[in-house]
Amino acid sequence: MSSEALRLLGLALRASRLAVGEDMSREAVNAHKARLLLLSSDAGESTRRRFQNLRTEKLPLLELEQSKAELGAALGRESCAVCAVTDLGLASRVAALLAAEHPELAPYAEALAARQAKAQRQKKEKPGKK
Asked: Is 104 domain-assigned?
């Protein structure tokens, strides 16, 4: 994962747009707030299985090259096996950065970018609240 993608995850955490850890990530999924799930390369088998079962067409689960310790360090934690990006724009950008390094992830990045574009169009079409 590029340093820019890790920087974006740190930004998402500071902006309260990143759920860190299994419990918080699962809560974000159950509340329909998660937009992208990220799994460390050395996540335990039970964690991997639980989050594989939570992923959907609209909620991709991407495995990172980073270990739990490396991902945790980027987020100011000792370790982190899984996290959930809850902001569609940040999720789209992180997926695009990952797809630039790993072309096999391009379909996920494209799907998130399309969802973001649709959300922006809908936001522009809605009359503003006063």
From this structure: no
| Contact call for residues 84 and 19 (beta carbons, < 8 A) | yes
CA atoms within 13 A on the CB side of 17: 15
Q: Look at residue 27 and tell me if it is in a domain.
A: yes
CATH number, domain of 75, equals 3.30.1330.30
- Asked whether residue 7 is assigned to any structural domain, the reply reads yes
Question: 60-83 pLDDT, tens per residue?
Answer: 999 999 999 999 999 999 999 999
What's the rounded Cα separation, in Å, for the pair 63 and 47? 12
Predicted structure pTM score: 0.89
What's the pLDDT tens digit per position in 50-63? 999 988 888 999 99
- Cα dist. 90→13, 30, 42, 69, 112 in Å? 11, 19, 24, 22, 10
- Report the DSSP pairing between strands 82-85 and 36-39: antiparallel
